Amino acid sequence: xxxxxxxxxxxxxxxxxxxxxxxxxxxxxxxxxIIALGIGAxxxxxxxxxxxxxxxxxxxxxxxxVWIANNGGAGLSSQTVQVxxxxxxxxxxxxxxxxxxxxxxxxxxxxxxxxxxEAVRLSAVPVTRNFFSVLxxxxxxxxxxxxxxxxxxxxxxxxxxYELWKTRYASNPDVVGxxxxxxxxxxxxxxxxxxxxxxxxxxxxxxxxxxxxxxxLSDETNHWGNTLSIVGRLEPGVSIASASAELNLLGDRIxxxxxxxxxxFRPVAVSLREHVSGRxxxxxxxxxxxxxxxxxxxxxxxxxxxxxxxxxxxxxxxIRAALGAGRRRLVRQMLTESVVLSSGGAALGLVLAIxxxxxxxxxxxxxxxxxxxxxxDASAVLxxxxxxxxxxxxxxxxxxxxxxxxxxxxxxxxxxxxSDGKHHQWMRSVLVVSEIxxxxxxxxxSGLLVHSFLNVLDVDLGFRPxxxxxxxxxxxxxxxxxxxxxxxxMDEVLRRSGxxxxxxxxxxxxxxxxxxxxxxxVRAKGVAYRHEWPNAFVRVxxxxxxxxxxxxxxxxxxxxxxxxxxxxxxILVNETAARTLWPGENAIGKILxxxxxxxxxxxxxxxxxxxxxxxxxxxxxxxxxxxRDHASLTLVVRxxxxxxxxxSSLRTALAPxxxxxxxxxxxxxxxxxxxxxxxxxxxxxxxxxFAGFALVLALLGIYGVISYTVSQRTHEIGVRIAxxxxxxxxxxxIIRETLTLAAIGIAVGAxxxxxxxxxxxxxxxxxxxxxxxxxxxxxxxxxxxxxxxGYVPARRASRIDPITALRSV
Length: 809
Known about the structure:
6-stranded mixed β-sheet; 809 residues; 27 helices
């Protein structure tokens, strides 16, 4: 019976609320819009956090999957594992039911897919035979690789990614079992992977992986050095901590057993989830904090609106109380109104979040893991429902519990003389101060990140990306296997591409900055090292590469056409390598031992190879004419042509050398740099948007309070003007009151911002948490906004007609 009465009362409250909000359509639309923007942003960030940090990885029993890396320092070569060490580890481990791996040095666009239609460059990842079974991935069509296909020189096979199968082969199931032309060789398609499997989003954020080929675990691949990234599946009941203890023992045992024959093996294990999402957890936490601050500002703003609205409804509440409604009943009615209002905003916010999450999921240029899996699901809808109720109660609680203390007095009062009193005015001022303080926190946080982002963009990359593009131009296998034929091919590529009108410089390389970070152990001849040799990033380049890339030659000479097989092996090193290997000496003419003994003929400026925010390590540049240690060949072109025009011209110019040259992977170096800084840009843009929204809400909050204060003080202001107060005097008084609120809010916000900035220290680049210009900018922006929001009410107050004001009493 009690439940039926409560349901009936709630139904009555909701119907009454709907009628009330419909009558005040302007207020309803404004409040709903503000709520929708806030809740829409909150749901979007929740969906991103859910996909990146909470939702299980799309594998079988993902909690048992472990990422095993080599603890060898910076550079992919130092973090990957040699084939022999991987095989021994898999055979000896008791903590893992199975271990699998993929070849970590696959390249973007490293395979050419021919056949029907235009040839295209695709990205393929070589994987061990059991890679998909360890992850728990079953093929959508066909089968996985066999032992024969995974052997050295075994039958050629390929697994297609679902998107490639759908777009290139029109979802034709008959392609399974048929050969396709891959790198000009027939390769049999053995299966199609399911649509739920996206290798790039998990293992290579920002990369699009199209297909997979078997990687042989053989003596030949063992000679390649550290090449494998390992994923293991824990035995039931085994923890990562206990597995790590075994890894330490096995690492020492395998290294000792093969000392001098293999690279050192120092395995470190973390959960696959931590490997995938750990690097973005702090960034997502910052976004969650920002959206929480925005929601607090939304609640403060709407509380102010409802306080003002409640004042105009005092007579209505008094009549309802006189008709028998108790104070609890009136409070419930007001809370019902705020929750219904919030629910309407949440419904619209959910629509905005659907649009927002779809936009985020399509951000291919942002190198963040699992971004493509961001979506609105049942958990997001439940979050929206909880947020709607919580927000409604949060911004409705203050107005609901500030009903007039004496409803009898309100009922006796005339409607024209109603005012909200000093207590209401004080509460409204507190809410505005809170809005200003919270807005200040977001302004400082976003200001620091913007400053850091600008510093990142302003760093000296060591090369000039503008007006430069890159395209894969790999020769056929017969050409690549012969150094003389390869040199002739290289000459023709450089000559033909360099002759294109509008092209200023051309060069060849096996890897670009901010991409592959292969490293070798090197040493200066005649120097004894107590521990391991230093690691240096290696690039195999043609003559002219330094100038084409816009790099700086600091000393010595550049590589030349004369640096061939018949001449002394030479090498270029960067400034860091020269200082490290030959401290206090001139490195020119010294002998560096890398793949062989090479004489240093030039020193080039440092290049940021790993990340824009990270300084250079040791770097060296080998001449293409003297080295066959390159798996791919990329043409770098500096020109004034558009990408489309350059692609067409290169395709035509190089047709005699590379018929049907794929140009879909032509990239500008600016795009490569942009992708490298995309995670920082993503965080900065979102936080800046939240700060802008918070600033608008703070402006509306200040304007609302000052405007309402002026309307409540019309009689007082009229008397002042009648007694001789000037318009400027009245305006100044209102502006001073506005600035008083702003000053308190800015002071509180500055302290809170200082604490927040310290928490953001790990995200900052080239700027300190207590950056004076950022805090000064926050002070200037909030002061300007406060003056602007108070100016209109102040101007209106100065134009009050004293006669009209006195007659209204």
